[in-house]
Structure formats: structure tokens, C-alpha cells
Amino acid sequence: MRRARPGAPPRGTGGRALTSVGAGIGFDGSRSADRRDERPGPEPASAGQERTQSKLWHITLCVSGTEIPLKEVRRGLEQLAHDHPFLLTSRYANDHAEVRYWEEARDLHDAAAVALRLWGEHRSSAGLPPWEIVGLEVIDRETYHQRVAEGYGPPPAAPVGVHPY
Asked: pLDDT (tens digit, 9 = 90+) per residue, 78-98?
């Protein structure tokens, strides 16, 4: 007795064929020229407007762990600043650091996900200490500027670069 879905071809008969499926409208912002002629009908007027626009998010990432010589911490943070060009400023001590930068993302969830991966993904390439993330703040650009204007937010990152506490 053979067990199979009703109507399914027997195994190994080559009854399956792979076909290509188009990604659809709006996948890369437009249809390719060879696919336009295949589908009749008008182009959606708001195909580009349907996508959520990305925004700028101010990220503050705090890490902490066992003590490391200050020279090593500074060297790692300087390399991170080189590898991640949007890094605004870093402050550090021998057992903790704070990294602040701007991230472009669709929404807060995406910005936070990228921020939470930053330290781990650059740990070996930048020679960062094996510290863990102990704090994360993600705020939109408007909130950041409002806080700074009212004097109660994070201080503006005027001294761009890597600095000790």
C-alpha cells in the first residue's frame, strides 16, 4: 500500500517541475521591462507610496562587562567607528561603554533589531570587549531634537568620536 496525498505523483517519477514565480509589483520599486507586457492592466498609481518610508532613529547602546584595559576599549571603539560610519560618539570606561549613532530604518522594531546586533556582529572584526548589552534606547529624530531643545535629553553629540567618561 502506497501512502501519499491524493493525486500526488509517485516519488521519483519526475512529475514535478520547477517554475519561476515573479516577485510581484513593488518588490524592487518597479516591474522589469520583460514582465510589463505579460500582465495587462494599469500600473498601480501608488505603488511607491504604499511602502513605508524609512526614518532616522537615534540609538544609544550601553554595554558592560569585566574590566578591560582602557587602550583596548578605545582601540575597539575607534575601529567600530571606522567600520560603522554613522557612529556619532562613544564614551567608555574600563568596564562599560555607551555608543550613540543614527540608524535609518522603517520602524522602531527594525532600528532596535539592528542596534541589538551591532555589538555582537562587530565584536571580532573591531576587537570589541566581550561585554553584553545592558541598555538600549531608540527614539525618532523628532523626539531627539525635542529633548535636546528642552534641555532634558541626551546632550548633543558635539564631540564626535571616542571619548573616556
From this structure: 999 888 877 788 999 999 999
